[in-house]
Amino acid sequence: MADNRDVVETMLVFARTLRVAGLEAGPDRVQAMVAALGELDVLEPSEVYWAGRFTLCAGPEDLERYDAAFNAFFGGERPRAGGRAPRKERVAQSAALDLDQSGAGTEPREETPDEHAVASGEEVLRHRDIAQLTPAEREQMRLLFGLLTVRPATRPSRRHTRSHRGSVDVPRTVRRVLRNGGEIRRLDRQRPRTKPRRVVLLIDVSGSMGPYADAVLRFAHTAVRRGQASTEVFTVGTRLTRVTRELRQRDPDRALAASGAAIPDWSGGTRLGEVLKAFLDRWGQRGTARRATVVIFSDGWERGDCALLGEQMQRLSRLAHAVIWVNPHKGRVGYEPLTGGMQAALPHVSRFVTGHSLAAFQELVEEMANA
């Protein structure tokens, strides 16, 4: 059996990850999991997985988030269904480990100062500027980005579905009348179905965006994995590169490595006007940007013609449903969009938001869902 202190510290950090993912994972649940692990082999991934699933999940709605958090935190896939799962009775009746090294029961207790410090540190990390993180904080941030749930906005479909309210479904009503010998007993109704609105991410990979490039690409990987066919990702710098296929890989590190290998202008210059024109000519005008939510990640440093950028942004705004511009520098105190690129683009932007921290990306998720 591993050292009790190591188990407790690991579970406290894992619980912090779960809370960021949206699970409650309070002290009583963490204590129950640690108590369960006192009767199990903590070196066996399947036993750790099932112990946490029985004790840390409050209902079926927590299972998907728990699986994602377990996979991200412990660096492995979810154990197969054939793996040995501890019985609920065994988990419930197992003796508690000594959480404070002085003896503790299994009754719920108030959070200790250390746990308050953990929660406070978690909140501070959410709002820290990504460019200023230490290597250890960056590693933790990579795990948290994998837990973001990107929800694209929906739009009405041309197809309809049956409903208790809505417009009259004439064909269905007529068929029912014919079956009833011409007697109208009720009117069948219908409402439009909804489908995900297409999302297009345009990511500036120039040198000035270098400190944020890894975080933005991880966000794009999460969006592609969640959105599947409704999400497209392009990088912009001195040329346009489509990286959607590379980002569809399940493992985020492999996906980012494949994307980096596919991008020929990484940390180069910025010619947003020319590259945006290339995107609209080849992809956008044909339908990729039409009625889509387009999200541009860039600090607005334009080395090309700012007038051309303004023209192409106007063209994009006419095609897209919404254009969201994400600038990481907007989160700094006293920032004003004074660069030529931002001045040319802002009149044609639906929303201008920041993108310098995990909290900012969580707000961006809401902006995209409500666009």
| Largest sheet data | 6 strands, mixed
Shape: flat
The percent range for helix content is: 40-55%
**Strand arrangement, major sheet:** 6-5-4-7-8-9
- Report Rg: 25 Å
Number of domains: 3
Give me the number of helical elements. Answer: 15
CATH H-level superfamily title of the largest domain: von Willebrand factor, type A domain
Order of helices and strands: HHHHHHHEEHEEHEEHHHEHEHEH
Give an account of the 3D structure.
The chain has 3 domains: 4-127, no CATH class; 157-195, no CATH class; 199-370, Rossmann fold (3-Layer(aba) Sandwich), CATH 3.40.50. Helices cover 48% and strands 13% of the residues. A 6-stranded mixed β-sheet has the order 6-5-4-7-8-9. A 3-stranded antiparallel β-sheet has the order 1-3-2, with no helix packed on it. It has 15 helices and 9 strands. The protein has 371 residues and is of the alpha/beta class. The model is unreliable at 77-109 and 115-119 (pLDDT under 50). Helix 1 (4-21) packs across helix 6 (113-127).
Key structural traits:
single chain, 371 residues, alpha/beta, Rossmann fold, 3 domains, three-stranded antiparallel sheet, 15 helices, flat
Task: Tell me the layout of helices and strands.
Elements: H1 4-21, H2 27-37, H3 45-56, H4 63-74, H5 88-93, H6 113-127, H7 135-145, E1 154-163, E2 167-168, H8 170-179, E3 189-196, E4 199-204, H9 210-227, E5 231-236, E6 240-242, H10 244-247, H11 252-262, H12 272-288, E7 293-297, H13 306-319, E8 322-327, H14 340-345, E9 351-354, H15 358-370
Parallel strand pairs: 4-5, 4-7, 7-8, 8-9
Antiparallel strand pairs: 1-3, 2-3, 5-6
Helix pairs in contact: 1-2, 1-4, 1-6, 2-3, 12-13
